[in-house]
Amino acid sequence: MVRFSLILFSLLTGIASASAAGISDFINNRNCDQVLDKKFYQICYDYKAKGALFVGYTLIGNNMEAGNIKKRPRFYPDRDIPARYRTTSSDYTKNEFHADRGHLAPDASFDYSKRSLHSVYSMANIIPQYSRINRKTWIKAERYERQIARKLGSVNVMNGVIYGSNPKRMHKSGIAYPEAYWKMLYDNHGFERCFYYKNDSHEKIKGDKLRDHLVDCKLVKTGRPGRPVAHKMRPAPKAS
Question: Under a CB-based contact definition with an 8 Å cutoff, are residues 68 and 60 in contact?
Fold first, then answer.
């Protein structure tokens, strides 16, 4: 069983030594069955779950204003993953969980070029997300990461998936259905913010606020996100 070690890592372009140390602490052969370098982001892939454990990337603020390509690509199976562990778009068709093909590296954060947008349509970047959470609540955290990238100039993002010890699975494909997932935003100047979402059809949708999902990043890093504690979010500092 792959160890679910949740270690904060850096994806700081242009600072090779710091970046290498952070990535190797997190994305390595101990923690991941396979590491996928998608050029624009990285995936820690779990064969048993048939899905990602972690996806990390750095967003550049200027890219958030570029491109904005409207036409979306088709989902495609990731041929770098052995056939028995890879997933296809059709695996999700009419599934019993009413789950969307949920992006971890979101398409709207990578629509600044055709290559970057195509990369996030790899099925290795997709997990089952309950449709209303994906479309109504998780999307707010995705928007927020782009807002922070614009404000700070860049932001590092780590997404984590919690499958549990005995996850439910899609009958047709055997894909594990996550219990929850989280998103961590941070930079190298002390900014850090984490959000946690249960992947549950009974979760509140109406009136949901981004701050409802705010959790202590220290708990996220140790693998114990805990229950979200709603409070007023401090505004992010401006880029120096």
Answer: no
